[in-house]
Write a structure and sequence with these properties.
491 residues; alpha+beta; Immunoglobulin-like; four-stranded mixed beta sheet; disordered N terminus
Length: 491
């Protein structure tokens, strides 16, 4: 029986009231940090947009612009949108939503320290009353070879690090994307895209939008049902003035978004600029593409909570016991792996490596992925740490010059302790990369999550607003601290 949003909220409030101190004493500071980071990113985006507008004098006025080369010119003209100039290429992906048992720590140890889990890490991974442990029943997007959904499409061994992410969808500006979706979950699900153009019949989201009939069939695909989603890739879905040759979007189920994404239904979509794509849709000027999702998966808000408690909690527990401990059953992972259990991310020295980074989740999903050993360029700015919020994405370009195995982790202290940390390896240009053309191995307790579909600038960072926001955050924190002291007994 699935919980409603109100029931989930009530359960969460009940759990918050009795949360253990080690997991809750920093909740208030997170709120301050969240506000400061949100303001900072807002000012940054606003400043960059203003600077871009000031610098660009060649951008056309879209109002009244005649858009040729498409059978639907009248539509694009009526909405004043970006033009769609079709390449004539249709990229078809066969994606199934399958129930699997996923293990967040398949190696059964802390691979970062190369030691068994200690007393601190066990707090996050041990099974017990209300604690599920590291293995969970989930529903994941997986790629298939054709519409029969009989054979999983292979995922190269060098991409095993993608973990529980759905198949990487590639397309070039001007392409049409078709996703043939089969729902194998025991609950209704969908495929909702970010960034590309879709009609109401291809949105994958149920709400009061004044549609009916066929335009509602995409909202919730029943168990065992098959639905084809068709999306166009207009100019505005591709790289902008400050982007490189490709940008990142995501897709996920949006029938019951919170429960669906916590169940595991999420994947990446990469769009390459017109004329810059290889036959498989990847950018010609990039040697290695890497996708990472930093997310605290709240398994307490998964539709499989009750079954996971019965199957994996030792002793078997109930929803009430589980909800009593907020912060438990919330793996802090990178692509569904914790404490370095992710298959090693590999690349060669001197390659042009493009990292696509995204986040999903709640107010605690404020992540600052940080690379040791090498740095990246994001929107023309050199850095080694990038910030992402729930539902946001970032693209970072790297040309590694430092051979070795390096940490890659979220820099938020609580997230480090909880295991949101992995590694990447840079090899010399003469070292062979293992298994580049083989099928992804099945991790212990995991699943062969196959790859699906077709064959496998300048930046102006607003320094003054940024400094102002940081100052505001510090002042706000000081005021809150003084207020708390004033409310303490005897003050």
């Amino acid at each position: 029986m699935w919980r409603t949003g109100n029931e989930a909220g009530a359960a969460g409030r009940a759990g918050a009231a009795t949360t253990s101190p080690p997991l809750t004493r920093r909740r208030s500071s997170r709120v301050v940090f969240a506000g400061a980071l949100t303001l900072l990113l807002g000012f940054t985006a606003a400043g960059s947009a203003s600077a871009a507008a000031a610098e660009r004098t060649d951008m056309p006025d879209m109002s009244g612009m005649a858009m040729s080369g498409t059978p639907n010119d009248s539509y694009w003209n009526s909405v004043g949108g970006e033009p769609f100039h079709p390449t004539g290429k249709v990229r078809t992906y066969y994606i199934g939503a399958d129930e699997v048992v996923w293990n967040y720590a398949p190696d059964g140890r802390n691979d970062i320290t190369d030691q068994p889990f200690d007393s601190i890490t066990k707090m996050y991974i041990d099974s017990g009353s209300g604690r599920i442990g590291t293995s969970y029943l989930k529903c994941l997007y997986r790629g298939y070879t054709d519409e029969g959904f009989a054979a999983l499409a292979p995922r190269p061994a060098q991409d095993a690090y993608l973990g529980f992410l759905g198949p990487v969808i590639h397309a070039e500006v001007g392409d049409t994307i078709k996703v043939v979706f089969r729902n194998g979950c025991r609950f209704p699900a969908s495929v909702h895209p970010h960034g590309v153009f879709y009609t109401k019949a291809n949105e994958g989201t149920p709400y009061a939008d004044n549609t009916s009939g066929e335009e509602k069939m995409d909202d919730a695909v029943a168990t065992g049902g098959i639905r084809t989603y068709t999306w166009l890739v207009p100019d505005r879905a591709g790289p902008g003035p400050h982007d490189g040759s490709s940008v990142m979007w995501m897709y996920h189920s949006h029938t019951n978004e919170v429960f669906d994404t916590n169940a595991g239904l999420i994947g990446p979509m990469l769009i390459t600029a017109r004329g810059m794509a290889r036959p498989d849709g990847s950018p010609k000027d990039v040697d290695r593409e890497l996708v990472t999702l930093f997310s605290i998966t709240n398994e307490n808000e998964s539709p499989y909570l009750q079954e996971n408690l019965k199957r994996f909690a030792k002793p078997a527990s109930s929803q009430q016991n589980d909800q009593r401990l907020a912060g438990i059953n919330e793996p802090h992972g990178v692509n569904g792996y914790i404490f370095g259990n992710e298959p090693m991310i590999t690349m060669r020295k001197g390659q042009h490596v493009r990292w696509y980074v995204m986040s999903m989740g709640s107010e605690t999903d404020l992540h600052t992925p940080h690379w040791h050993g090498n740095d990246v360029v994001v929107g023309g700015m050199r850095m080694d740490t990038v910030g992402v919020l729930p539902g946001t994405m970032a693209v970072a370009d790297m040309v590694p010059d430092n051979v070795g195995i390096w940490l890659y982790h979220c820099h938020v202290n609580d997230h480090i302790l909880a295991g949101m940390i992995t590694r990447y390896r840079v090899v010399s240009d003469t070292t062979a990369l293992d298994g580049s053309a083989t099928t992804m191995p099945v991790p212990v307790g995991g699943v062969p999550a196959g790859e699906g579909g077709v064959a496998g600038s300048r930046s102006s960072f607003p320094v003054v607003p940024a400094v102002a926001v940081v100052a505001m955050a510090l002042v706000s924190r000081s005021m809150i601290a003084r207020r708390r002291r004033a409310l303490l007994p005897g003050r």
